[in-house]
Batch of 2 targets.
Target 1
Amino acid sequence: MAQLFQNFIGGAWADGSSGKVIKSANPANREDIIGEFPASTKDDASRAIVAANGARKNWAGTSSLARGQFLIKAAAHLQSKSEDYAQAITRECGKSIIESRGEVGRAIALLQYYGVEGMNPVGSVVPSVNPNILLYTNRVPLGVVALVTPWNFPLAIPIWKMAPALVYGNTIVLKPASATPHLGALIARMWEAVDLPKGVFNLVTGSGGEVGNELITNPGVNAISFTGSSKVGHGIAIESARRNIRYQLEMGGKNPVIVLPDADLEQAAEITVSGAMKYSGQKCTATSRAIVVGGILEDFTSMVVDRVNKLKLGPGSDPASIVVPVIDEASRQNVVSAVKRGQEDGGIVLTGGGVPSGNGFDKGTFVQPAVLSKVRPDAFIACEEIFGPVLTIIPARDADEAIEIANSVPYGLSAGIFTRNLNSSLDFANRIEAGIVKVNGETAGVEPQVPFGGMKASSSGSREQGKAAIEFFTETKTIYVDRSRT
Ligand code: NDP
């Protein structure tokens, strides 16, 4: 019998009111059921919003230093249970255990960073034209913030939203992805373990259509921070604009690397493959296009294919696995059909794109990592996010054409260039339409103390993480105090 989990509302564990459940399964072995979680209703979501509103005044009135201490304690809690959390991530979203440990480490760093942030100034004193006026700015919380999060970083993404949300004085309702509700429950346990005041953090599991929709439309929510698909993100933008509430969207990417003829080709091939294939390309910052300039095309391509063919495909619980199962069957079908379509559009499949069998592969949603060469820049597979282990190699005449191709898609999250030339690097950094720019580095892999986010269709523009997070999670007040008659 699978373990039955509950929602966490107002500091107490509660059953969902529908009595129905969603089951979470291990992508490496779909028979391994992690647990059953409430398929909550809009009433459950609404109760969580009421609880978050009830806790709002006291939490906003708590000093930010004291709020920060809860985050520091949560970081210590996570540290003490880090291996349990890492194993849980691998089991629920399929990620390699090495990368899951990295994700836990990142969540700890985020909690520590924003814990300390509670001691930092949030406003400034500004000279007034009137010497009797004390003129200063302050930042105040937004109120109740809904966090709607995806399955691919089931710990780090909720934490990088909630750590700043909490330290700046907001209360929250989290709806995790239906594929990874267990990590949502483990996050709730973390806050319970550090005695976060009741109602400050609330968890409601259930579908996007029911729970997510209530969080977006309920007037008790003051802001929404979302990571996921462009389609859902656009719906949130429209509804938020209608209600004039603040929204933050992190959506997809179609992240390019440009390889110039003077690059260290071994390094370029190694990093490109790592960016494209680790975690089976299921990162919004994963590399999906290698735009290769001039006569190095054949050499670079064969270096990439050699490396991809050596990658171990297997369950994330095996530390040697680099390519792991994709999240579910729909995702696998999406990868297989995208590769077929890439071929129909004139691309050459050099390796992968099939479904492996035997050797335990039949139990999970594995797909062989694919490399396609000579792909047209406007082909579907070169423009649409596939969210799987698929790399397209696109030839370009020169650096100018390569940048044009890189910028030709609607997305603009992360982009890289491989070159030894300083001018080419800086020219690329200036002209590329991407929120994250790497020179001789992987498009995936970012540090938590700096802003994260994309341009164009990848994001709503406001940045997450680092100092930038305060812009979303607070409002500025400008205060004039005339002391002439006091
Ligand atoms: P979704 O956008 O469908 O899901 C993200 C979150 O939004 C989940 O919690 C989901 O709930 C919720 N949601 C779904 N529909 C609604 C709705 N109508 N109202 C409110 N919330 C909703 O993304 P998926 O996880 O299904 O992934 C689909 C694609 O999105 C991927 O293939 C990839 O292209 C992209 N993606 C991008 C990510 C990124 O980091 N930028 C991360 C993950 C995905 P539920 O799980 O219950 O459906």
Target 2
Amino acid sequence: MRPANLDAVSGRSLIAGVVGAPVRQSLSPVIHNGWLAACGIDGVYAPFALHPDRFESFVDGLRGGGVTGVNVTLPFKARALAVADEADDAAKAASAANLLLFRPDGAIEARNTDGLGLLAAFHDQAPEVDFKDAAVVILGAGGAARGALGALLEAGVGRIWVLNRTEARARDLADFFGSRVGALPLDAAATAFRSAHVLINASAAGLESDDVPVLPLDQLASGAVVMDMVYKPLQTPLLRQAQSLGFRTVDGLAMLIGQARPSFEAFFGQPAPKGDEPRRWALASLAAS
Ligand code: NDP
């Protein structure tokens, strides 16, 4: 009997993957391998679970292009930027990279596609949102928040308030990104919420159901849209609370798929197919885990 994937991988296969510690929870292999099969591309996308001390030596060993590139997930995104020879503006603004490309000349190129993924998620699930001159509140001041800030400012947002558990990190972001960005402590959320068109959770709060700060969502203006970058669980406590108050929501899985599209094209040389299939594959994988 022929193995099911006999035709999928050959001696000429393009190889890409995702690097993390841990990485077994990643949905990226499901999404990318699904697209590879749909496109009939001779390629494979593998998970690389690394010891945290081995990130730099692993990546250095990939120079030259035997592997076309890797996505990078926690906790390596800042180190991915540091190890690269070149970086795009999004990676520099985020001080982090979620995509490394290995060029045949040995150079490593860093990119950050999380901001593109964020905008794609709104395009898919709340297309009525017009970021031009909008007021946005971002919870969190880590790498994901930085990536979001760069993309939102580029999209013409008028005002962004960053609220973070450690307020000093929010102030660092306001200093870095300039006059359209301000910092507030978490307990000043109600003030920022009243004028916000969009609320984005870019913090790790919500990964566990009992570590979510209590937020005055009832202070948000009617018509505001609430987005959570966390996608496990897909319906986070924040999204559930927002929905119960009647707000439109955008989930983190839409962002994950949105950031995967430009990665796929960079790895395999053609655009990912349009359509909802990756969401179906990812939901099936989440349900099975
Ligand atoms: P970082 O570790 O860089 O930053 C974590 C942030 O979360 C910090 O601001 C931290 O605050 C805050 N935080 C952590 N725990 C809590 C808590 N219990 N209450 C309040 N604030 C908390 O992580 P990233 O920025 O890279 O990622 C943030 C989240 O976004 C993660 O859940 C990640 O999975 C998700 N993400 C999703 C993506 C997608 O495609 N859907 C893409 C990228 C990220 P402090 O500064 O005080 O420590």
